[in-house]
């Protein structure tokens, strides 16, 4: 027993001696660094260590900084080591520091294993310092492996894995690695594996996180030239112009999408001229990831030569190249256009004025050619029935009236224009029944021509309001009445109002209401007796009368029916 003890002491002292003797000759391994969360547990075997499960005597753990501290190998200690493995249970902020394990092999070889430990509170758990590298590959299915320090812990200490994504539990994941299938942007985040392990009947957690990044998919499409869309672009000589060559290459393919201009087959970048300036820019639109490269060719001052050059927009994608040509064209000056427009406007106004002035002449001119005028609207005998006042007029008016009715009117309308008129006093056949005659002739007339004289409506002479007036007035009144009746009530004939002389101060107010109504509908034509040429059949007055008369004179053949 004693011998054994002595032997042991000898062994220990030899090893101590050895360790002291060889400290200077120890081989230092690179330092590993770990950042831990407060409250968790840390189990670590230096990666540089071959066989950690040897006697504790072969290892010495200590903390070199911030203060030197021996580390016990008693397993009940919160911080201890066992073999080559370091245990930090319920990590405290004070545990941060540099730790070293001196390993002295039985062969006498000495190694120093270094580890630096940082301690963070849980509020730092998303911090980059606490994640073990990013997973960023282009595979559809991503494997997320629990970082080695934690998976080693679980393997060695037979712990259980649980997985979290962004710190919420992923149920059913209990392996050292997990898979994210068909990863999308939604799968991005921090994946944490927690190893839950037992040590002397107590449960401890060790966790490690990694960030998953799902890169955007890149899709190379056939190149599509978005601009220019036309073969010709207008330009002004002497002014600057920008030509836009815009090319679509696909999704997320920056670096594989190029656009450029060529002039007469030579790349603009090879033309050393101050006249051209090309800028190129690639844009990836969000969120579509559409990649569009635009080359803008600026010509500082367009010259005549540019109108002959051929500009070519070239789009270069991963799979294809497309090109489209463009030529410049002198922009048409706007001045001739404006002049033309003004001219057309003037012409239209002029034409409108002409039409307005000569509307009646035009109507009369085209009348024979219009289809409506080809046939007579009816078989009536007379074109117009002429009524006028025969009583209570001053001498001058009476003369004017009689001249107009017996001379001017028939000479123009009948002799020159071929109309047939029924004129009171001229066409009455003596002895015939007046009332019947008036009624019949009225029915056989297509227009009622009313000659208004200054006295037509005045005083008690209003024919249809004067039952006690002498015979002529009664007859005249009957003509009026029948005429107005036909015109107003039966609407069989339209009325032509002709006025001789002035109406006087009272205007038309003295006329019977029916006549006033007609006057309101169409103003009477004034007979300009005193003006020169008024009597000529093509004077303005007669044109207006003819315009109101039927288009074609009544048929002569029907005449016998009444006479
Ligand atoms: C650490 O241990 C060594 C030998 O075991 C001893 O010499 C040293 O004094 C100890 N240091 C402290 C700070 O306890
Ligand atoms: C660990 O050692 C390094 C280098 O010697 C030093 O920069 C660092 O501050 C130390 N860490 C701690 C926590 O003392
Ligand atoms: C992943 O995508 C493949 C093919 O698109 C499909 O067959 C498979 O079911 C998908 N897997 C999951 C987990 O959605
Ligand atoms: C691990 O899981 C097994 C089975 O579910 C259980 O028996 C064991 O106690 C768990 N270990 C720890 C450390 O929680
Ligand atoms: C340890 O991890 C388990 C499983 O993830 C969890 O249920 C438990 O709350 C954790 N314990 C501590 C002290 O964080
Ligand atoms: C160039 O053309 C593209 C496609 O028509 C358009 O989206 C872009 O705004 C244009 N760029 C310039 C500077 O005109
Ligand atoms: C070309 O255009 C860019 C941007 O418009 C400008 O910064 C640059 O100075 C121009 N280069 C020349 C040579 O004119």
UniProtKB/TrEMBL annotation:
GO BP: signal transduction
Gene Ontology MF terms: hydrolase activity
Residues annotated as transmembrane: 334-366
Annotated keywords: Disulfide bond, Glycoprotein, Hydrolase, Immunoglobulin domain, Membrane, NAD, Signal, Transmembrane, Transmembrane helix
Signal peptide: 1-21
Domain (TIR): residue spans on this chain: 380-549
Taxonomy, superkingdom: Eukaryota
Gene3D superfamilies: Immunoglobulins, Toll/interleukin-1 receptor homology (TIR) domain
Ig-like domain mapped to chain residues: 58-102
Family assignment from sequence similarity: Belongs to the interleukin-1 receptor family.
Protein name according to UniProt: Interleukin-1 receptor-like 1 isoform X2
Gene name as annotated: LOC103357159
């Amino acid at each position: 027993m004693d011998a054994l003890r002595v032997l042991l002491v000898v062994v220990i002292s030899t090893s101590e001696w050895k360790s002291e003797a060889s400290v200077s000759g120890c081989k230092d391994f690179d330092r590993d660094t770990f950042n831990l969360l407060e409250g968790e547990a840390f189990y670590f075997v230096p990666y540089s260590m071959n066989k950690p499960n040897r006697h504790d005597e072969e290892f010495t753990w200590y903390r070199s900084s911030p203060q030197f501290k021996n580390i016990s190998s008693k397993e009940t200690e919160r911080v201890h080591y066992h073999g080559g493995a370091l245990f930090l249970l319920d990590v405290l902020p004070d545990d941060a520091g540099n730790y070293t394990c001196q390993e002295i092999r039985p062969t006498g070889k000495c190694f120093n294993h270094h580890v630096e430990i940082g301690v963070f509170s849980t509020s730092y758990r998303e911090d980059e310092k606490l994640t073990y590298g990013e997973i960023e590959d282009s595979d559809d299915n991503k494997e997320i492996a629990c970082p080695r320090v934690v998976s080693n812990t679980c393997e060695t200490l037979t712990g259980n894995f649980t997985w979290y994504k962004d710190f919420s539990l992923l149920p059913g994941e209990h392996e050292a690695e997990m898979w994210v299938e068909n990863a999308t942007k939604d799968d991005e985040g921090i994946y944490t594996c927690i190893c839950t392990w037992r040590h002397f009947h107590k449960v401890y957690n060790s966790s490690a996180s990694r960030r998953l990044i799902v890169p955007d998919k890149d899709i190379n499409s056939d190149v599509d030239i978005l601009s220019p869309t036309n073969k010709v672009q207008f330009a002004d000589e002497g002014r600057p112009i920008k030509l836009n060559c815009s090319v679509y290459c696909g999704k997320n393919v920056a670096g594989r999408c190029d656009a450029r201009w060529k002039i007469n087959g030579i790349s603009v970048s090879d033309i050393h001229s101050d006249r051209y300036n090309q800028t190129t820019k690639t844009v990836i639109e969000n969120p579509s990831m559409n990649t569009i490269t635009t080359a803008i060719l600026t010509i500082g001052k367009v010259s005549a030569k540019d109108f002959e050059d051929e500009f070519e927009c070239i789009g270069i994608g991963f799979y294809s190249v497309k090109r489209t040509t463009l030529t410049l064209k002198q922009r048409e000056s706007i001045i001739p256009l404006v002049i033309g427009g003004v001219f057309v406007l003037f012409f239209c106004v002029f034409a409108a004025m002409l039409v307005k002035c000569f509307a009646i002449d035009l109507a009369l001119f085209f009348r024979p050619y219009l289809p409506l005028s080809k046939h007579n609207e009816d078989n009536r005998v007379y074109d117009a029935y002429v009524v006028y006042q025969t009583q209570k007029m001053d001498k001058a008016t009476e003369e004017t009236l009689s001249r107009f009715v017996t001379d001017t009117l028939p000479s123009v309308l009948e002799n020159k224009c071929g109309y047939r008129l029924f004129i009171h006093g001229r066409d009455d056949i003596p002895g015939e029944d007046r009332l019947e005659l008036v009624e019949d002739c009225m029915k056989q007339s297509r227009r009622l021509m009313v000659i208004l004289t200054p006295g037509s409506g005045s005083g008690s002479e209003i024919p249809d309001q004067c039952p006690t007036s002498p015979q002529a007035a009664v007859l005249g009144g009957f003509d009026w009445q029948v005429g107005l009746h036909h015109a107003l009530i039966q609407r069989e004939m339209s009325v032509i109002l002709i006025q001789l002389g002035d109406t006087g101060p009272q205007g038309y107010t003295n006329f019977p209401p029916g006549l006033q109504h007609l006057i309101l509908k169409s103003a009477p034509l004034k007979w300009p007796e005193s003006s020169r040429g008024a009597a000529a059949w093509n004077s303005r007055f007669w044109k207006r009368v003819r315009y109101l008369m039927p288009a074609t004179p009544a048929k002569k053949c029907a005449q016998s029916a009444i006479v």
